Every structure is written in structure tokens, then in C-alpha cells.
Amino acid sequence: MQPPRLSRDNRRQQILESALPLFARYGFAGTTTRRIADTARISEALLFKHFPNKSAIYAEILAGICTADPGLARLRAEPPSTRTLVQIVRGMAHYFLQAADGSDAEGNQKLRLTLSSYLEDGEFAKVLSDKVEQVIAPIFIDSLEQAIAVGDALAGASSPRNLFWFTHHTICTLAATQLPSLPSLDYPPAAKLEREVCEYILRGVGLTDAAITAHGALDLSFEAFETSLLEFAK
């Protein structure tokens, strides 16, 4: 039986909706493109016309969740500012440290998948990084540029884009040290560690001590930034 004809957007959405419960049940490694295609009642060849590989499907799902997150939506609606920059850094640190200690099970899986990808072909990490750069990096970049413009931060030799990724990778590496049941380093408790790494990063991207104090950078309460990285993204 031929699958019903759908528009390109509707077909992509159908594939994503079919893949989501499979990833949730079997994980990334245990989900195949054949299984996704069978669940969507289409051929693998048709699936590949819309997504080049399994990593692209997974990353698209994560990006959709990230875009739909209420906390991130509110942050994206805020004008670029020093305060917004601080919220992003605090959000990234909070998310990754929660993922590392296992209190965010889904985040823990994403972090492990990304780290594994770095050690393999890098395909999943690359696709996910592209999504993080589209969704989260612009808020960081615009806010840092605004902080520089108003004198809250000093311009350095590194581009704001690179500073975003330096921030991301610093926090990811820190989180990775906390993944084993016996952490590789004896860091302080999570709340104190989060504050310290935020201070380190904010100074590193150029924020002045006066700006950090004025914006209460280390005492900001922050709402869920749970699905961003990578992202992640957070």
C-alpha cells in the first residue's frame, strides 16, 4: 500500500512523531531508521529524503523541545542585556550539572550521548551542535554585545560566538567529571560549584566585577532551562 501523500512539512512531522516514543523507549543506540520508518509506515528511502540519518532526526526532536520550553521562550523574548547573558550562563550551568548528577534523567542521557559521539564519528554531536547554535547561541551573542555596548563587559580578542562555545564546552567538561558514580574530582556541592563556574565564565567572557554584582549574577533564581544543550545544550 502506498503511503498517503503528505506535504513535506507534514511528512517530516510524521517522522518526528513516530521517532520520539522509540527514542524514549529504546534510546539513541537502540533505535534504527528501519524501526522509525516502519512505525511511520513509510519506506526507509522516503525517510532518508527528509532526514539524512538518525542523528538528524534526534537533533530535530531536541531542537523542537528546546524551542517549546517555556523558560527558553521567555528568555528569547527578553531584549538582549547583561541580565539575559547572566541568565543564560546560569541556566547552562544548572542544566548540565543536574544532568551529570542524575537528577535530570533525560539530560543525563543527552550528555552521555554527546560525549560518546565525540569519541566515535562525531555525527550526533555535530548535528546537535548546529541546532544549539541556531536556538541558543544568538541570545548569548546579542546579550554579550549589548553588555559590551553599555560598558558592563570588556571586548576581547575572541569573537562572541567563540565565547559562547568556550562557555558551553567548559560547562560540559565540568559536568563530565561528575558523571561517574565515583566523581573523578572532589568538587564542592552542586550549588556552590554552579556559583563558582558561573563567576569564572562571566569574568572570562569579559563581564566586569561591578556588572556581576549589579546584576546579582550569582544569586539569580532561574526557571527551567532544561532542554537547551548542547544544549546543550545547552
From TrEMBL:
GO terms for molecular function: DNA-binding transcription factor activity; transcription cis-regulatory region binding. InterPro entries: DNA-bd_HTH_TetR-type_CS, Homeodomain-like_sf, HTH-type_TetR-like_transc_reg, HTH_TetR. Residues 9-69 form the HTH tetR-type domain. The keyword Phosphoprotein does not apply. PROSITE patterns: HTH_TETR_1, HTH_TETR_2. Coiled coil: none annotated. Keywords: DNA-binding. Residues 32-51 bind DNA. Pfam families: TetR_N. The keyword DNA-binding applies. PANTHER family: HTH-TYPE TRANSCRIPTIONAL REGULATOR RUTR, HTH-TYPE TRANSCRIPTIONAL REGULATOR UIDR. This is TetR family transcriptional regulator.
